[in-house]
Amino acid sequence: MEKTVSPFAAPVYVMLKPVGATCNLACDYCYYLGKSRYYPEAKNALMSMELLERFISEYIESQTMPCAMFTWHGGEALMRPLSFYQSALALQKRYAGGMQIDNCIQTNGTLLTDEWCRFLKDNNFLVGISIDGPQEFHDEYRRNRHGQPSFYKVMKGLELLKKHGVEYNAMAVVNDYNVDYPLEFYNFFKQIECRYIQFTPIVERIVEGDTYRLASFTVDSVKWGEFLCAVFDEWLKADVGTYFVQLFDATLANWMGVQPGICTLARTCGHAGVMEFNGDVYACDHFVYPEYKRGNIYTKTITEMMYCPEQIRFGKDKFDKLPPCCLNCEYLFACNGECPKNRFISDGDAPGLNYLCPGYKRFFAHAAPCMDFMKQELLAQRPAANVMQWAAGR
After folding, report:
1. Does 285 qualify as catalytic in the annotation?
2. CB-based contacts of 374: which residues, under 8 Å, 6+ apart?
């Protein structure tokens, strides 16, 4: 019999959108810019100080663990002035009640200054910076509303983070263009000494009436697998234990039978919601649609919204609604169907197959011997980095 896990066993996690979808860039594949259409009456998308205080006090109160992680996202989160975040930290301190408070913020990096970086360092923020590799790759899709490229501004921001010793990681989108250059892509991050990397495959659909088509920048599913295999082989040469690729770490976690560090590869989801600038709470950052709205913080508590039957079912459906071919797959334990937003392919009469499935299967099959070896090393309390010497001798 499968063990029943209480939904309260996972920490409450609600991402904040202090400026909604507002951004100083207009990246072609931004999935969030269009969300502003749900708030046509809003003169601006600025979270009020009253709402900020309500959220902070209630968010801390709702935690089932002795720590609370605040994640500031956008749009572009730095479009709120520094004073906004200074006020947020003061409120966190007021309501902490002895609880550990951590902050992370996602940014495109173009608005970073010395003042910002000093603040981020002094207050132990973890910064996620969006950068899609070398200039040619990055500027293909990441431009402002006037079509001007953003690479140099991002790199300037990155240098400021380094200058001030701010802890950061890179979120790199893999698209139809850069997927063909995995080694150039990966080695760029080594050249700039970015040791924590999140590779995110872009999969977006454009709705046309009752049908849809894949956006032109969507990564090819098979090429996504080839990309991962190429980067994995390069990583195995000398980088295990010194450069950390989030997807590789999460895959190894699933190989070990422990909770992966990313929700996309977990068995269930639903514990990570998102709150818009006006207090509306949605099931997930990728499901900001009216049918997934859980309520508003002015009329419902965070606990009510994040533990409501609809949200719990949303999380369980990730596994429970997998098609038969997934349930019979030898790599089900490794991906758990990946993100529900990508599960729109039909397998005969069974809908719900993940668009990226061919790529993940290719990667898991390729990486399996090394994952098996690293698992055994870790179980024997030896470093996983031993896989480099083992792989070199194969």
Report:
1. yes
2. 252, 255, 384, 386, 387
What does the block give as tokens for 245? 């690729």
pLDDT of residue 9: 56
Q: Give CA–CA dist 232/224, Å, rounded.
A: 12
CA distance 95 to 255: 39
Counting Cβ atoms within 10 Å, is residue 107 exposed (0-12), middle (13-18) or buried (19+)?
buried
Residue-level length of the chain: 394
Q: Helix, strand, coil % (nearest 5) of the chain?
A: 45, 15, 40
Angle between helices 357-379 and 246-256 (to 10 degrees): 60
The mean pLDDT of 319-323, rounded to a whole number, is 94
Pick from 193, 123, 120, 113: which is nearest to 160 by CA? Answer: 113
Q: Give me the helix-helix angle, 49-62 and 82-95, nearest 10°.
A: 40
User: Model pTM?
Assistant: 0.94
Q: Per the structure block, which two tokens stand in for 278?
A: 């006006």
The Cα–Cα gap between 213 and 193 comes to 38
Question: How many CB atoms lie under 10 A from the CB of residue 328?
Answer: 9
Angle at 72 between CA 68 and CA 78, to 5 degrees: 145
Read off the pLDDT of residues 105-150 as tens digits, 9 standing for 90 and up: 999 999 999 999 999 999 999 999 999 999 999 999 999 989 999 9
The answer to whether the beta carbons of residues 75 and 22 sit under 8 Å apart is yes
Question: Looking at 132, 176, 239, 285, which residue is catalytic?
Answer: 285
Residue 125 CA to residue 88 CA, distance in Å, equals 13
DSSP-derived letter for residue 389 is H
Short-list 354, 324, 351, 325, CA closest to 339: 354
Edge-to-edge order in the sheet of strand 280-282:
244-245, 196-201, 168-174, 126-130, 100-107, 67-72, 13-16, 272-275, 280-282, 293-296
